[in-house]
Amino acid sequence: RPSVVFDNVLFGYEKDRTILQGLSFEVPAGQNIAIVGPSGAGKSTIARLLFRFYDPWSGRILIDGQDIAQITQTSLRAALGIVPQDSVLFNETIGYNIAYGRADATQADVEAAARDAALMPLIERLPQGFDTEVGERGLKLSGGEKQRVAIARTLVKNPPILLLDEATSALDTRTEQDILATLHRVSEHRTSLSIAHRLSTIADADKILVLQDGQLAESGSHLDLLRRD
Ligand code: ADP
Ligand code: ADP
C-alpha cells in the first residue's frame, strides 16, 4: 500500500484561481519520489496540503491509507519529517538542536542518535559538540553544517515519510553536492518525497513527476526525462 496518495486533488488559495488541477500521484513505501517543476507550478502547495495548512477543495490525501482529514495533527506530524530549504536553528549546541527533533529526547538519546548508523553520514561532518551543554552553537555553523543539523533533527524522530522541500536550494553549488550525497545515503530505502526546481538535484529519485500549472506534465526516471528534453 502506498505511503502517500494524492487522489484527484483540486485546490486554490482564492476561489477563482485553481492551483492544483485534480492532481493524482502516489509515493510507494520505501521509494524516493521527486516532484520537479518551474516556480509557481504548485510544488510547495503540495507540502502545505500534506501538513494540512490548507485542505483541498475536493479529492483526498491519504497517508498509509488514511485520509489526513481524519487523523490528528499529532499523528500527522509524527508521520512526516520535513527538511525545508531555510532551516532555523536555535543558538544552542548541535546536540540540543538535534535532540529538539524529539521533544522528549534526553542527553543519552542525543548520544545514541550520534551513534545511529543512519545519522553517521550527517554527523561525521559536523564540528564537535553533541553534548547538549557544551560545544559549537547553531548560529556559528556554516550553511551546509546547519542543513546537516536540520536533517539530523528530522531523522531522530524516525519519521515514516521524509519530505525534502528544496532542501539544498539555499546552498552554494559545492555544499549542495555534498549535502545531496549525504541525503542520498540517509534516504535510501526510506519513503521520501523531494520537491525541487532543478532536475540535477533529484538524479537519485526512483521516479520523477514533472508538475506544470498544477498538473502532471510527464513522469519517468531521471534518464527518461533527460532523453525527452
Ligand atoms: P512552487 O512551489 O511550485 O513555486 P507554489 O506552490 O508556492 O509554487 O505556488 C503556486 C501558485 O500559488 C503560485 O502562483 C503562487 O503565486 C500561488 N500562491 C502560493 N501561495 C499563495 C497564497 N498564500 N495565496 C495566494 N496565492 C498563493
Ligand atoms: P514537529 O515539530 O511538529 O514534530 P517537524 O519538526 O517535522 O514537526 O516540522 C517543523 C514544523 O515545520 C512543523 O510544525 C510543520 O508544520 C512545519 N512545516 C510544514 N511544512 C513546512 C514547509 N514547507 N516549510 C517549513 N516548515 C514547514
Beta-strand percentage range: 15-25%
Shape: globular
Unreliably modeled segments: none
The helix/strand order is EEEHEEHEHHHHEHEEEH
The count of helical stretches stands at 8
Ions and ligands: adenosine-5'-diphosphate
SSE topology sketch:
Layout: E1 4-11, E2 20-27, E3 32-36, H1 43-50, E4 58-63, E5 66-67, H2 73-79, E6 80-83, H3 94-99, H4 107-115, H5 120-123, H6 143-155, E7 161-165, H7 173-187, E8 191-196, E9 207-212, E10 215-220, H8 222-228
Helix pairs in contact: 6-7
The structure holds adenosine-5'-diphosphate (2 copies).
Domain ABC transporter: 4-229
Subcellular location: Cell membrane
Protein name: ATP-binding cassette subfamily B protein
Give a written overview of the molecule.
This protein has 229 residues and is an alpha/beta fold. It is built from 8 helices and 10 strands. The protein has a 6-stranded mixed sheet, sandwiched between helices. A hairpin with a 2-residue loop joins strand 4 and strand 5. The longest helix has 15 residues, at 173-187. The protein is globular, with a radius of gyration of 18 Å. The two termini are 32 Å apart. The structure holds adenosine-5'-diphosphate (ADP) (2 copies). Residues 13-14, 19, 37, 39-45 line the site of one adenosine-5'-diphosphate. It is found in: Cell membrane. This is ATP-binding cassette subfamily B protein. It comes from Novosphingobium fluoreni. Residues 4-229 form the ABC transporter domain.
